[in-house]
Design a protein that fits this description.
The protein is α+β, with helices and mostly antiparallel strands. The protein has three helices and three strands; from the N terminus they run E-H-H-E-H-E.
């Protein structure tokens, strides 16, 4: 109930969904398919079946989008995947794209 002389203030707050960025995985001739499947399951939380399908898309098409995430999440996933690949000595390539 408003008292005379007082103003009621209405604030409309609109929450904007964050932009989504693609995580793109690239094929190479050195990173084992089993390693790629493991990355897809552990970092990108794909089921074994989905990981196999995605890995084959990367293998046959030379690249594939493996997920769409807010920038910080996409960047973190890419960094984790690359760190694991380098620890194993693989030239595995995955990147964030707008």
């Amino acid at each position: 109930m408003a008292v005379e002389g007082q103003l009621k203030e209405h604030t409309n707050i609109k929450v904007k969904q964050p932009d989504l960025y693609k995580v793109v995985m690239f094929n190479d001739d050195f990173t084992p398919m089993e390693f790629v499947v493991e990355i897809l399951m552990t970092i990108f939380h794909k089921t074994y079946g989905d990981a196999i399908k995605t890995m084959m898309m990367v293998h046959k098409g030379n690249r594939a989008v493996v997920g769409r995430y807010a920038y910080d999440i996409a960047k973190t996933k890419v960094e984790r995947a690359i760190k694991l690949a380098r620890a194993e000595g693989y030239p595995f390539r995955v990147e964030v794209q707008k």
